[in-house]
Amino acid sequence: MAEVINMPRLSDTMEEGVVAKWLKQKGDKVQEGDILAEIETDKATMEFESFYEGTLLHIGIEEGETAPVDTLLAIIGEEDEDISELLKGGGDADKDKEEDASDSDEDEGEDEAESDGDSDDGGIPEGVEIITMPRLSDTMEEGTVASWLKKEGDKVEEGDILAEIETDKATMEFESFYEGTLLKIGLEEGETAKVDSLLAIIGPEGTDVSNVSVDGKSKKETSGKSEKKEEKSEEKESKSSEKKSSGATKDGGRIFASPLAKKMAEDKGIDLSNVEGSGGNGRIVKKDIEDYKPSEKPAEAQPQSEAKDTAAAPQPYVPAGEESFEEIKNSQMRKTIAKRLGESKFNAPHYYLTIEVDMANAMASRKQINEMPDIKVSFNDMVIKASAMALRKHPQVNSQWTGESMKIAKHIHMGVAVAVEEGLVVPVLKFADQMSMTQIGNNVKDVAGKARNKKLQPKDMEGSTFTVSNLGMFGIVEFTSIINQPNSAILSVGTIVEKPVVKNGEIVVGNTMKLTLACDHRTVDGATGAAFLKTLKTYMENPVTMLA
Fold first, then answer.
1. Which of 105, 160, 350, 521 is catalytic?
2. How many whole angstroms from its chain centre is CA 349?
3. CA distance to 144, 261, 263, 271, 289, per residue, from 267 (Å)
4. Spans of biased composition, class Acidic residues (predicted)?
């Protein structure tokens, strides 16, 4: 009997998924445990395996398509098994709609013929497909066109990659589900737009799509009088724009430029008639404005008398140069990080406590431990272990604020901040208090490697109760961090500094490290945070206590 497979919920926040790639094709034999497809969620791309065996009879979601959780993904059953009942209600209705649409198009065509070539009645031309900005993750509200792989006028086949779209999670390839000619590009490279905004139009070659508005709907014609007024207005604007930089070339020809390019040129005081466009039909785009360098003009000759006076007096040195900025568009991931950190900083009342730890014993203990074969422990591993043990003695620091109550976690899951090229991620070491320092070290290396290679799974980044951020390896002596919500505290770890210290009434060379605890005052009072740091300091200065 055939088995229906729906879009799985691969994380507790997942509402829809994208089929990144099918590993099995229609008609292939499938064994239980075989990987059917790679599903992209809001947090990672994950392999999805089959729980059934048989033949893959139907694929409900093509590669690159997005669908809500529980949407029909595939059907597996016996070879040549009839699955029409499982698909019933879709095909016939679609055919009826297509026939009705066809009849409607024919009627419209007759009406147009009878109107002797008069303007469009408001319908979108036959065969034209409107493509809007896709929602590539459940948290995506807007997208940026990183690059176009097709240009206006290019032929497009079904499955061709149209563009690379930057979301709040990653930059993803967006493929066409239609074939035809790319008639219009709605967003230039580097431009950002809301989900469902007009991205492109594909249809038969030569089709006039000038009547399709930005929202993908057809523009209805107004009266003939208003059209004539608009034409006259356009003529006036065309004539007047010959004197302006945004409308015409030096010889009076029309300038084609994207709205963003015009705005940038206006802000920078650039004459568009001096800019060479690299877009379709010589259209000026954002990149042309960014790369534009004004040609140097010869200085006007000074009158002889003025020149003599100038030569007579020493001239002050005036440095010459051009003021400029490099503008880098914010990635969707960077926007998300900014939003969440802003919410944490402005909603949670932060305060900070700093202690200085004598690292002499920790350095000696680490040296002895690392002399053992196949064992390597870092100072960061020691800090994580000490923090986990201190949380066990001060559970209120291991808490969350919910508004209605304070939740104190009985488990200890340590978040470890890891810098990646696109921003910052926080993989989680679960039940860290039960791990040895060597186990902590191995796990940190594993999740940090996954983070940098974009292999982290959603489960690797969920559930932290406390976070450690270490910048000591960069030589940072002391810093403060923003709390990783919904945690109540985060520990900032500085570098080990060699400096004079007082021991037994004498000044000697010592090694110290500063630890700063950022606390949410709604859950962690000052005395509670101070007591936690005191216990943490004791563990760090006596590492033997962490080996028990």
1. 521
2. 28
3. 22, 10, 6, 11, 11
4. 99-123
Indicate whether 425 pLDDT > 70: yes
Closest CA to 534 of 359, 356, 351: 356
pTM for the complete prediction? Answer: 0.47
How many alpha carbons lie under 13 Å from residue 183 in its C-beta half-sphere?
22
CA-CA distance, 165 to 172, in Å (whole number)?
5
β-pairing verdict for 29-30 and 54-59: antiparallel
pLDDT tens, residue by residue, 215-250: 545 444 434 444 444 444 444 444 444 433 344 454
Nearest-10 Cα torsion for 449, 455, 457, 463: 30
The 10s digit of each residue's pLDDT in 372-423 is 888 889 999 999 999 999 999 999 999 999 888 999 999 999 999 988 877 7
Amino acid 138: pLDDT: 56
Cα–Cα distances in Å, from 50 out to 4, 44, 317, 390? 11, 19, 76, 44
DSSP string, 207-265: ---TTB-TTSSBPPP--HHHHHHHHHHHHHHHHHGGGSTTTB-TTSPBPPB-HHHHHHH
Amino acid (1-letter code) at residue 498:
E
Tell me the per-residue pLDDT of 495-518, one tens digit each, with 9 for 90 and over.
999 999 998 899 999 999 999 999
Distance, in Å, from the CA atom of 153 to the CA atom of 186, rounded to the nearest integer, reads: 14
Check whether 300 has a pLDDT greater than 70.
no
Sign of the alpha-carbon dihedral angle for 239, 244, 248, 250: positive
Structure confidence by residue, pLDDT tens digits, 107-127: 444 444 443 434 344 467 788
Q: How confident is the model at residue 322 (pLDDT cuts 50, 70, 90)?
A: confident
By CB atoms closer than 10 A (0-12, 13-18, 19+), residue 322 is exposed
Comparing CA positions, the residue from 471, 512, 464, 492 lying closest to residue 350 is 492
* 206, amino acid identity: G
Q: Which of these is catalytic: 28, 103, 154, 525?
A: 525
CA dihedral angle for residue 191, residue 194, residue 195, residue 196, rounded to 10 degrees: -90
Catalytic residue list contains 525: yes
Query: If you average pLDDT over residues 76-82, what whole number do you get?
Result: 89
Angle separating helix axes 379-393 and 526-541, nearest 10 degrees: 130
Q: Hey, what amino acid is at 103?
A: D
- Structure token digits, residue 278: 């690299």
Let me know if 58 is a catalytic residue. no
CA atoms within 13 A on the CB side of 343: 8
